[in-house]
From TrEMBL, chains A, B:
Official protein name in the record: 3-hexulose-6-phosphate synthase
InterPro entries: Aldolase_TIM (IPR013785), OMPdeCOase_dom (IPR001754), RibuloseP-bd_barrel (IPR011060)
One Pfam family named in its UniProt record: OMPdecase
Entry keywords, A to Z: Lyase
GO MF terms held by the record: 3-dehydro-L-gulonate-6-phosphate decarboxylase activity; orotidine-5'-phosphate decarboxylase activity
GO biological process per UniProt: 'de novo' pyrimidine nucleobase biosynthetic process; L-ascorbic acid catabolic process
Domain Orotidine 5'-phosphate decarboxylase: 5-203
Length: 212, 212
C-alpha cells in the first residue's frame, strides 16, 4: 500500500450502480466507502453486496455511529466491513465502545470530526492513538454554504489522518502540506465524472506533486 | 391525541419481530419509532414494512441525520415516515435543511439533543420553534456508565419536548414536573417485558400520577 491513497465514497445511488462504478476504478483506489446514504437506504445488504463483489478490497462502512456502538459495529463487521466510522461530536463513551469492538475484531475505526470543537479533537487525539481521524466538511456545509475543507490544525502528532469534503486542485495543496493526510476521501467528483479513472489520476497527480 | 403519549422505540430486532411486538401494543402507544439499528440493518424496507402493517399510525424514523439532510429526509418520508430525527450536535445547516424538508413535506422533525451543550440547546430552541426537542441519554451512556436521564434545563419556553433514556419509576416523576414532556420514548423496558401492555400501563400510571 502507498503511504497515501484515495478512498472512493459512494453515495446517493443504488447498490448496482455503485458496484458497476467501482468495477471501473477498483485498481485505482485504496479503500471503498459504502456511504451513509447507501446504508440507510439498503441496510447491511449494501455492505454484503460489496464484500461479495470485491472479496479482497478494504471496505469502509460509513455508519456514522453515535450510539449503540457495539451492536452497530457488529452489524458492519459481520456484513464484511473492515472499517467503521463513529462521530467525534457524540458521547466519548460511544467512541470508546467502537474502539474496543474494532480492536477485538482486528478491524479499524475512523473518527469523523464533523462539527467537533478543538477541545474535543485534542481529547480524541490523545485518547485514541490507533484511530484514523477524518477532518470533514460535510455535504450540507459544502452545498449550502459553499464551504470546502477547513482545517483548524491542533497538531496531530503522527496520527493517521483522512480528509473529506470539497477536495480539489485549489484546496488540496495546502491540506497536504499542513496535515500530511494518508487518506483522501473523494466522492461525487469521481462518481459523477465522465471519465472516473481520469478524475482519479488528476487527484493522484496533485497529491504526488505536493508530497514532500 | 392525549396531551402526552408514549413513543415505542424498536431496536435490536428484525422487522418481523418488531411488527409482531407492535401489533400487541398498537392501541396503547402514540407513535412508533423505527430505531436506528433497524434502519442501518434493513434500510428503508424497515419503514416501508411498518407503513404497510400500520397504515394509520404515526411513524418516526430514527434516522439520526447529521449530513445529507435533504436526501435522507426524502428517503424516510418516501418510505412512509411522518417524523425524522436530526442530531443537534451536528452542523446547524443540517438541522436547517431537515427543518425545511420536513416543513415542505408537511411532516415533523425531532432534534436529538444527545451530547449537545447548553449553548447549542439554546440556539436550537430559539431557531426551530416548530421542532420537537428530544432530551436523550443514549443506550451506550446507560449501559456503560449506569447513567439514566439527566436534564440541564435551559427553559424550553413551551417547545414540544420528548424524553428518552432510562425512564423508570424513580427518574420519571421529577422529569415530568420539570420538563412537562409531551413524548415519552420507551424501548427495551416495553419490548423486553414479559407483558408489554402491562409495562406500558405502569408507565402511563406514573405519568398520570405526576401530571399537574
Amino acid at each position: 500500500m502507498d503511504k497515501y491513497f484515495i478512498q472512493l465514497a459512494l453515495d446517493r445511488m443504488n447498490i448496482e450502480e455503485a458496484i458497476r462504478l467501482t468495477q471501473k476504478v477498483e485498481e485505482n483506489v485504496g479503500w471503498i466507502e459504502i456511504g451513509t446514504s447507501l446504508i440507510k437506504e439498503f441496510g447491511m445488504k449494501s455492505v454484503r453486496s460489496f464484500r461479495n463483489a470485491f472479496p479482497e478490497k478494504m471496505l469502509l462502512a460509513d455508519m456514522k455511529i453515535i450510539d449503540n456502538a457495539r451492536y452497530e459495529c457488529d452489524l458492519a463487521f459481520t456484513a464484511g466491513a473492515n472499517v467503521v466510522t463513529v462521530m467525534g461530536c457524540g458521547p466519548l463513551i460511544t467512541v470508546q465502545l467502537v474502539a474496543e469492538t474494532a480492536r477485538n475484531a482486528n478491524q479499524n475505526f475512523m473518527i469523523d470530526l464533523l462539527n467537533t470543537t478543538e477541545k474535543q479533537q485534542i481529547l480524541l487525539r490523545d485518547t485514541f492513538p490507533d484511530a484514523i481521524f477524518c477532518l470533514h466538511t460535510s455535504k450540507d456545509q459544502q452545498e449550502r454554504t459553499g464551504d470546502t475543507f477547513r482545517s483548524n490544525d491542533i497538531g496531530w502528532n503522527g496520527r493517521r489522518i483522512a480528509v473529506a469534503g470539497g477536495l480539489n486542485e485549489e484546496t488540496l495543496p495546502p491540506i497536504i502540506v499542513q496535515l500530511r493526510p494518508e487518506i483522501f476521501i473523494i466522492g461525487s467528483s469521481i462518481t459523477k465524472a465522465t471519465n472516473p479513472v481520469a478524475a482519479i489520476r488528476t487527484y493522484q497527480q496533485i497529491i504526488k506533486d505536493n508530497q514532500f
